[in-house]
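Email to the structure team, subject: Aminopyrimidine aminohydrolase model.

Hi all, the expression group asked for a predicted structure before they design truncation constructs. Nothing fancy, just the tokens so they can compare against earlier work. One-line instruction: predict Aminopyrimidine aminohydrolase, return tokens.
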Amino acid sequence: MTTLFERLKEAAGQEWLNYTDHVFIQQMEAGTLPPEVFKEYLIQDYRFLVQFARAYALQAYKSRTMADIQIASKGLADVIHETDLHVKRLETGWGVSRQQIESTPEAWTNVAYTRFVLDAGSSGDLLDLVVAQAPCAIGYAEIGERLKPALEANPEHPYAEWIGEYSADWYQQVKVETISHIDALAARTFTEERFSELAEIFTTATRMEAQFWQTAFDLAAANA
Ligand SMILES: Cc1ncc(C[n+]2csc(CCO)c2C)c(N)n1
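Reply from the structure team: attached below.
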């Protein structure tokens, strides 16, 4: 059976590729991504993850069952784990402290993306919110899978740590769980009339994921 995620991804069309096959990913795969671009990405991503943690908390608030609260709680814990990695990387790589990260202005594209996700969840139900968060959670697993051979070919790959994290089994499992969570929620509340609205939420979030990579290049260029 086709999953709702597959239908949403198909509806996003080219936008999904613009995100998962962005120049940022191509350069990361080749190991040629400029370190300053990666640094700007990590700083903005920390700021992003703060809002994304709030979105998982909102998932808990929008839940009606303990099973859904458990899923939200695990998502929240995964985000905290990810921010800790970012802070360590920024500290060891560039001597950037958590305080410096937190006082760096949020890029407006980052504001747009995260507040869009939070609004989709505030104004909608749990399915709307999980769909708004899906490009993020599932896209990174697809990217990790794609980059894995580059890491296996070169254990000294400059982005070994990042690729290792998203290609790891635990993260591939997050993808499987998110897809089945969407289907479980859909079984309760999805009607065909909702599809176009859900597809718009999903495609918009996907477009903003692609823009997130672009913002890292723009910030690095502005600092150069
Ligand atoms: C812009 C942006 N999009 C997606 C992710 C990936 N991500 C966000 S939360 C999470 C953990 C649980 O889903 C993961 C892997 C990111 N870091 N930054």
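The mean pLDDT is 97. The domain at 4-219 is CATH 1.20.910.10 (Heme Oxygenase; Chain A). Ping us if the truncation boundaries need rechecking.
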